[in-house]
Amino acid sequence: MRDHMQRTLKDFTAHAFLHGITVLTISLTILIAGALLLVVENGTAVISSWKSGVTVMVYLHDGISSSEVEATGRSLETMGGVKGATFISRDEALTDLMESMAGQRSLFDDLGENPLPDAYEVEVSPEAAEWSRVEVMAAAMVKLSAVDEVEYGRSWLARVSRLLGLVELTGGALALLFFIVALFIVYNTVRLALYSRRDEIEIMQLVGATGNFIKMPLYLAGIIEGGLGALIALMALFGAYLLFVSKVGGGVDDFVPSFLSIGAMGVVFLYGIFVGWFGCFLSLREFMQETAV
Amino acid sequence: MTQPDNTDDALIRLFNVSKRFGAKLALSNITMDIHKGEWLYVTGPSGAGKSTLLKLFYLGEKTTSGQVLVFGTNMNRLARREIPFLRRRFGIIFQDFKLIAHRNVFENVALVLEARGEPRAMIAKRTRNILRHAGMEMRMNAMPTTLSGGEQQRVAVARAIAGQPEVILADEPTGSLDPKSAEIIIGLLSAYHKRGATVLVATHDTELLARREGRIIRLEEGRLVSSEPAVGEAP
Predict the structure, then answer these.
(1) Cα separation of A77 and B118, whole Å?
(2) Contact criterion met (CB < 8 Å) for B98 and A293
(3) Is A210 on the interface with B (CB under 8 A)?
(4) Which residues numbered 167-226 in B keep a CB inside 8 Å of some CB on A?
(5) Which residue, A281, A64, A284, A37, is CA-closest to A178?
(6) Tens-digit pLDDT profile for chain B (235 aa)?
(7) Which fold has domain B36-59+80-216?
(8) CB of A262 within 8 Å of any CB in chain B?
(9) CB contact at 8 A, A139 and A82
């Protein structure tokens, strides 16, 4: 293996331009795919952070007994898609309201009796935070005897969620497409590189070199090119990400986009290696069949 | 049709061998033996099938019909993975030298031994010895493109004999050389032949043939038309 590696490195210096072009091609295609992956990852993060904040306010009738309040709470908590239900008494609600409107305290001076109802704040579990499911859940809640009204007015969230879902799907599909494009570009680049070395390979075959002896440095070169291309792409992507964050900063809801997770970076790096190896495998299989008898 | 002579020292045997490239018949019904230690010239006009005949021996081409036995093995039945090991028993020389342009003289010759997985120290020692023998030791760091045609062919001969093959196949080895360089190449091949190797030279160089070191077979339009024994040998 040491000999193969030495021959590979020697070959890198002998065909520096050819290898350089291959690395550059791999890094460019992986950069595009990686950028799409970054959009998808951040889009997913935005959606899940928003989904985790979906709540339904359940207002109760006036004058119901504490046992009815407790029973309603239990019913709400055992409903499918409900993460938890927090009771907010009418007094707590008023205190909160007054605190939030501390500047206009005089508004409450002539209030007399507290007009706010007792309520439950029902937190919807993220996996159930689809608009259609929330609608169904709300319809079930309003049927409970102690419930007067249900409010789940963040319909804009549903629309944005659907939009981001679309972005996620499209981005994912495009990233996949670019990864496939990367594979074919690498395959063709390696094939061209092999054709430019056709005479050399033919001479090796004539002096009795085994397929392994001929192919091993080419595979190693493919793997190194793929790994190097992926590393360059990740570094370039990180640079672009830093630039973007410094210029744009926090976007919607002060959401700061994050860079690819360690797992995603690992996948991109491994994909680079795979692309280098597989491009080499496909080209070599075809090439050796053409050159051998 | 000539019959093989059935001698036990036949290294290569051909039985009714034909080779067709599309509509063109390159070799037609060839039957012959090549013996161990023999020097054989294969001659004939361009396109007669000389190069094709040589290629059949190291599986550079396969027959369309007929049988080729090399070192007792039928080439039609040789597994693909065995081809490199067959080729290690041949040293092949071409008119256009076929040196690797980005490897220097030493590396071109050493490649044969590297491909066999020989130890580094042995590769270096043997390569130097062979280059010294070929008169190319002083130029072992030179790149092929900086060498004259004669020098390149000397490197090619050094590469061919580096693995100590049993058979040398030389396809027009002097075809693009001046008489003095041609003399040196034939001298190198002759020296290796004297060590017991079998040498097959495809040529239409009349000066070379006039030396009559060995047997001459003549091909015309793919057919074997004559076989003349070496001077001093019984016909």
Answers:
(1) 76
(2) no
(3) yes
(4) none
(5) A37
(6) 444 454 567 899 999 999 999 999 999 999 999 999 999 999 999 999 999 999 999 999 999 999 999 999 999 999 988 999 999 999 999 999 999 998 999 999 999 999 888 998 999 999 999 999 999 999 999 999 999 999 999 999 999 999 999 999 999 999 888 989 999 999 999 999 999 999 999 998 887 787 767 899 999 999 999 887 766 554 4
(7) Rossmann fold (3.40.50)
(8) no
(9) no
Q: Do B98 and A209 touch (CB under 8 A)?
A: no
Partners of A13 on chain B (C-beta within 8 Å) are none
Could you give the domains of chain A? 2-49+159-291 (no CATH), 55-153 (3.30.70.3040)
Element (H, E) at A221: helix A211-248
pLDDT digits (tens, 9 = 90+) for A48-80: 666 666 788 899 998 888 888 889 989 888 888
Distance between B220 CA and the closest CA of chain A, angstroms:
25
Whether the complex's predicted ipTM is more than 0.90 is answered with no
- B116 at interface of A, judged by CB pairs closer than 8 A: yes
A199, A200, A208 ranked by CB distance to B87: nearest:
A208
Q: Is residue B17 within 8 Å of residue B41, measured between CB atoms?
A: no
- A102 in contact with B at a CB cutoff of 8 Å? no
Distance from CA of B59 to the nearest CA of A (A): 7
Query: Which of A207, A213, A214, A288 is best to mutate for the B interface (most B CBs within 10 A)?
Result: A207
Shortest CA distance from A207: residue in chain B:
B112
Spatial separation of the C-alpha atoms in residues B88 and B116, rounded to whole Å: 8
- Between positions 1 and 60 of A, the ones with CB within 8 A of B are 3, 7, 14-15
d(CA B37, CA B214): 10
Exposed, middle or buried, A30 (CB in 10 Å: 0-12/13-18/19+)?
buried
Domain boundaries, chain B: 36-59+80-216
Rounded CA separation B32/B17 (Å): 9
CA contacts within 13 A on the Cβ side of B215: 20
C-beta atoms of B115 and A292 within 8 A = no
CA–CA gap between residue B187 and residue A199 (Å, rounded): 28
